[in-house]
């Protein structure tokens, strides 16, 4: 492949095969990733492979595997990358479990540093997992496999209906087809820290469907319940990173680096060996890595298949891609020679067509093209500079005369007016602006409460709409389904609706023990129960006064008109039978009727 002679197979995956290669010009070793010709004709796979090359060209960081060059050999796309001396984090988790929380934090800090550079370049990795993190022999971290990375806001290159990523470490918004931002990588890093400490990911299941169901509706067991002797700050950080709502996570990889650095500055008296609690589970087996690490300078890079029980779930496959996920570990014989589709075919072609470009050559070519373009268009550049100067003058003038962003007091007064007028939805943007720009303002807590109230109203409107269109039970959590059933029951039986709401709160509540939509649903249930209790109490009070008046009237006429008094007594008994609030009146009516009939 280009200047490289393929030596041994390192691993295989849905995006091709990785070989250990030797540069015949220099003798340098590299990892060669090849997309075979039978896959190169698939436009989706070809575009993803080229996207990976383009992504790696932009990245240059000590914690990201380096790209050496790329090219095409007889229709087969390939690129050469750094061959790391060490092993994958997946193997570390299972074979030599990490004993110190500081090691976990240090690894996470190096991963976050690599992600920070990727995010600053506008790139989301989207598949951070143990098998995609390499630990070198000098205990440094390298991130690899940017094959499914995506630029912020770019259109996808996956096939229709496909979700790319690894279920055990995938952020909820990525799993359910919502917009993916850098915070998806931060969720995955939180899941990775969880796995390093607990030796299992936050959610486990026998199928992707089961894992996704848990990802949507369940909360992971708190890490400090699975692992003893963890600093509280570390437990809280992992919990925050695993929040289902991206807005509640650490905002950026840069901010996460600062949090992790602060943890490493904790006093040494917090250092204890990690111990799993008794109820922790063993990490199950899973498929092999796409890229294993070499075991030594000249040793075969693959591991004993019996030792490759990795702490990760299968990669989710794209529709129509065979072999893109669950891969069987290679046997010893298969691990020491390249497949015949690569090596033997190469030998049969006397005149192979090769294209290979090193990273340095690509950058030099780009620089030369830019230089020629600049020299040939000097006069255009002058005009452009002149136009830019004019535009800059206009912008500066506009900035001088344009109103500045409103201050905290002005924004708060707008919010307060909207709340007083009952128009919270109209000041939603102002609330977001205030909470983002003035988080330390003492009034931010009140603004946050107003924002949560608006979220509650919007969620209640969604429930009403779901009930109105007859989709109350589609894709909803059981808590939400019970709440909607209670609301429907209230239309014809308020007492039964009250009993349902009381049961719902007793089983799943109180609301402050849940999160997200479930917590808001329980808040709505608590409010509606309070309203129902008040309404039923008011109604029973009015009925009590009215029935008391009729009983007193029956008592007055019992001697003169016993038949009419008897009808009133019997009517009261019939009305109040089974009503707990009217027990006293019921007893009195029964006693009066008995005395009347005994005369």
From TrEMBL:
Residues 4-264 form the Protein kinase domain. Residues 278-374 are annotated as: Disordered. It comes from the Bacteria. GO terms for molecular function: ATP binding; protein serine/threonine kinase activity. The keyword Repressor does not apply. InterPro entries: Kinase-like_dom_sf, Prot_kinase_dom, Protein_kinase_ATP_BS, Ser/Thr_kinase_AS. Its EC number is 2.7.11.1. Pfam families: Pkinase. Keywords: ATP-binding, Kinase, Nucleotide-binding, Transferase. It is an enzyme of class 2 (transferase). The keyword DNA-binding does not apply. ATP binds at residue 33. Residues 362-374 have a biased composition (Basic and acidic residues). This is Serine/threonine-protein kinase PrkC. It comes from Bremerella volcania.
């Amino acid at each position: 492949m280009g200047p490289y002679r393929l030596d041994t197979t390192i691993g295989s995956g849905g995006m091709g095969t990785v070989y250990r290669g030797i540069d015949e010009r220099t003798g340098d070793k590299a990892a060669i990733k090849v997309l075979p010709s039978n896959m190169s004709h698939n436009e989706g796979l070809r575009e993803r492979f080229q996207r990976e090359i383009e992504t790696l060209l932009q990245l240059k960081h000590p914690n990201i595997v380096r790209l050496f060059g790329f090219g095409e050999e007889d229709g087969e796309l390939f690129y050469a990358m750094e061959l790391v001396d060490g092993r994958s984090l997946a193997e570390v988790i299972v074979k030599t479990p990490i004993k110190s929380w500081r090691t976990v934090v240090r690894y996470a800090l190096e991963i976050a540093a690599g992600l920070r550079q990727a995010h600053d370049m506008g790139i989301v990795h989207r598949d951070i997992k143990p098998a995609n993190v390499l630990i070198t022999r000098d205990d440094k971290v390298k991130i690899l496999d940017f094959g499914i990375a995506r630029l912020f806001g770019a259109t996808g290159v996956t096939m229709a209906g496909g979700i790319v990523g690894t279920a055990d470490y995938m952020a909820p918004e990525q799993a359910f087809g919502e917009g993916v931002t850098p915070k998806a990588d931060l969720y995955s890093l939180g899941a990775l820290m969880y796995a390093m400490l607990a030796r299992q990911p936050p959610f486990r299941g026998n199928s992707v469907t089961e894992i996704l169901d848990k990802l949507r509706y369940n909360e992971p067991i708190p890490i400090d319940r699975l692992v003893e002797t963890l600093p509280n700050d570390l437990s809280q950080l992992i919990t925050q990173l695993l929040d289902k709502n991206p807005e509640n996570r650490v905002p950026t990889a840069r901010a996460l680096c600062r949090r992790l650095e602060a943890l490493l500055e904790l006093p040494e008296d917090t250092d204890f060996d990690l111990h799993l609690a008794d109820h922790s589970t063993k990490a199950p087996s899973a498929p092999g890595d796409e890229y294993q690490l070499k075991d030594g300078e000249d040793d075969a890079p693959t591991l004993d298949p019996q030792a490759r029980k990795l702490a990760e779930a299968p990669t989710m496959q794209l529709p129509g891609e065979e072999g893109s996920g669950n891969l069987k570990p290679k046997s010893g014989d298969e691990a020491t020679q390249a497949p015949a589709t690569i090596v033997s075919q190469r030998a049969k072609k006397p005149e192979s067509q090769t294209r290979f470009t090193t990273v340095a050559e690509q950058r030099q070519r780009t620089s030369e093209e830019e230089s020629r373009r600049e020299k040939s268009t000097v006069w255009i550049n002058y005009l452009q500079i002149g136009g830019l100067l004019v535009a800059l003058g206009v912008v500066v003038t506009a900035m001088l005369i344009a109103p500045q962003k409103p201050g905290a007091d002005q924004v708060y007064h707008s919010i307060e007016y909207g709340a007083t007028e009952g128009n919270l939805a109209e000041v939603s943007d102002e609330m977001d602006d205030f909470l983002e720009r003035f988080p330390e303002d003492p009034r931010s807590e009140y603004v946050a409460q107003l924002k949560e109230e608006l979220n509650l109203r919007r969620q209640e409107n969604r429930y009403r709409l779901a009930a109105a269109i007859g989709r109350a039970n589609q894709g909803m959590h059981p808590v939400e389904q019970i709440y909607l059933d209670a609301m429907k029951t209230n239309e014809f039986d308020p007492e039964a609706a009250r009993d349902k709401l009381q049961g719902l709160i007793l089983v799943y509540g109180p609301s402050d023990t849940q999160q997200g939509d479930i917590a808001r649903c329980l808040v709505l249930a608590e409010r509606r129960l309070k309203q129902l209790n008040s309404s039923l109490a008011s109604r029973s009070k009015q009925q009590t006064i009215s029935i008391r008046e009729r009983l007193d009237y029956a008592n007055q006429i019992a001697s003169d008109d016993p038949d009419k008094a008897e009808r009133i007594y019997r009517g009261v008994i019939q009305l109040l039978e089974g009503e707990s609030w009217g027990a006293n009146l019921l007893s009195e009516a029964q006693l009066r009727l008995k005395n009347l009939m005994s005369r």
